[in-house]
Amino acid sequence: MNSLLLCSNTFKTFSSKKNPDPFSILKWITCLALIFCFQFTHAQIQTGSVHGTITTADGKSAQNVSVILSNTHKGTISGEQGNYKISNILPGTYTLILKHTGMITQSGQIVIKPGEATIANFSITEDNKALQEVTVTSGYNKFAKKETNAVAKMPLLNLENPQVYNVIPQELLQDENIVSYNDVLKNVAGVSQALVNGSNSFNLRGFFTTSYLRNGLQDSKENSIEVANIESIEVLKGPSATLFGSSLTSFGGLLNRITKKPFDTFQGEISYTDGGFGLNRVTADFNTPLNPDKGLFLRTNVAYDSEGSFQDAGFTNRFFVAPSLLYKVNDRLTISLDAEIYNQKSNDFNRLFPEASFTKTNPRDLGIDWTKSYSSNDLYETDPSVSLYGTVNYKISDHWKSQTAFSQTNSTVQGDWSYNSIVGDTAVSRNPGYEHTIYNYTEVQQNFNGDFKLGKMRNRVVIGLDYFTNTVNSTSAMIYGFDEVSIKGNDPRYNELTLTSLNAALASVPYSKSSTEQSTYSAYASDVLNITDNLLAMASLRVDHFVNGGTHDINADTTTGKYNQTALSPKLGLVYQIVPNQVSLFGNYMNGFSNNAPVRQPDGTFSSFKPSEANQWEGGVKLDLFDGKLNSTLSYYHIKVSDVIHNSFVTGETQFEVQDGGQLSKGFEAEVIANPFRGFNLIAGYAYNDIYTINTDPDADGLHQWTGPAQTANLWLSYHFLSSSLKGLGLGIGGNYNGIAYIQQSKSQGEFYLPAYTVLNAVVSYDQPVYRVSLKMDNLTNEVYWGSYVSQMMPRRFSATVAFKFR
Fold it and tell me: How many helices (H) and strands (E) does the chain have?
């Protein structure tokens, strides 16, 4: 009774507020849960359950299979051992529907009796490298691989999740014959390249986002990301700090790579790609059961990639090895260990950065010879890295599971480079330098997952602890204004930037040496509650304690910038399935934060600042119609960033740092993944983003800055012949549209922008059981376009791939 009175008071307080805060909403949802628990705890309805195991045709466990109980809201996802369970089912006859990428949708009839558990086991078509044989013989929506445990850190169907996310499966990477990580994200609505040329950075809902996550944990390194070991890429939209932390996410979202895992049968594939501008690429993927009887399996991916440039300088050479070991100790315990060993040597950093003194408004009018790199292949960097990753999964009971995971990354950047900027429309200023930086990142995470009932209400819970730490040791020097080279004509100084001349200039420049250390201690919890048959509520909370050990200047033997900060990050969501398992309406409130260091003011005093926070409100609809042939998400979002630090802008006074600025990002996103008829698949997306600063700079507030284009669109159409003499032939075409992207807008100095563009790519493939041949044309129409700051992107390029399969 006291709980009901408390809830009554909470509801009155909640309903009296015009703009209730997130914690009031959390209290209201909690009280609503208490009411339902009180109502149903003593109910004596005799229900039943169904459970079983799902295996592939050769007897191995099939995980992440969607299991749906027809004509109800109930469903689940099979676990690592292929097991599933659906409880609290009213007596009657039902149909169980099984869905998974790479198989024809299967179903089976079951009878639920009062108080009894029904056993229903299933065998499905295997979904590994044999997927291509399935492609040749059946039609299915192979790009709609939405079901994943990693997004919510719990088994949650896409239609049950109030957050917007995209999943790019390995099937799409192969269909588009993708060899570069930068090209992967072109399939996601609202994502655009930030820094080009192997930077692993993107703009997501207008915020700079770097790909830091692998299998849900850190994998921060400076070299290009290799696609050979990728099973899928997950893109979570909006401030996602609640489950993943602020250090690895942005206010726009996060990028999470899911790597390939071992399985129970021997399979292998070797491929070779040859293409324009010196592209040579070899990959190998071998899965080997070491001791199937004892559950020991090994999978190894290898890649060698060598590539030149259409410019007069620029190259990338990289070698990559990724072994992965899986040990199924018993039905309860599974241990996995894997590594990624990478070595890269490259001069792929050729970018031009514009200054604010332009009389021209876009790079098309500058008259630059874009085949010039303004650099030299003598200047290059080596980027070796080693990443280790391990997990221990243990089934505590039928309702609780434990996962202990760690990730450790060591990477190094060493070599020479040049930061080039355009000055006054007439010259390129070259600013070369040297750096040797060593990065060490470690993360340890413990998760407990529960799936249980309170009365009639199902609870899916994750409770986690996380420790993340990193150290950076750096030695560097830079020559500002090494020289200026004319944009037009043949300037004799153009070839004077060499390793010899740079070393001579650096000999008279002092090298800076520094070390930094940061750690974050976190705890989080998330609960998804089935309030009614069709209504689900999510409530999540994270607490982060951030410790910055400061920056140690080794030359001066001084340490500055030490500080600690603690931040809370809540997340709330509601889902209502207006058509169970087909149409759901959703809404969410999400919070993210960014730690801010103390600042030394012009008068010598220090100012401490609280974290900047981003609060998102979002709503939309998710569809999964026509037996999975149409999958779509439509959403509108509003992200308000508060407590942004900026210079005070009182004219004629000393500029102090203050914390009263803001930023607003709002927009619309749409994704459609469809299989309208056998053999034909498409993925399409459109996004509109409006982002600008508030009260940070009167000269720029309200104007779109360098945060990516306001409008983006993507499309890929794929048709594979499934019968007749053309069986195995595949045709694919698609591309991207990017609207105008402003590098700078200023009320006093004007604007500079990258023009809008449309780039098309096409693939012809022929796939047979033992080999596959693919022919690809990138930039089909030879569009001249720019990315990042002022970097012309690759012209038309033809490439050919041949792959041999082993079974």
Answer: 7, 48
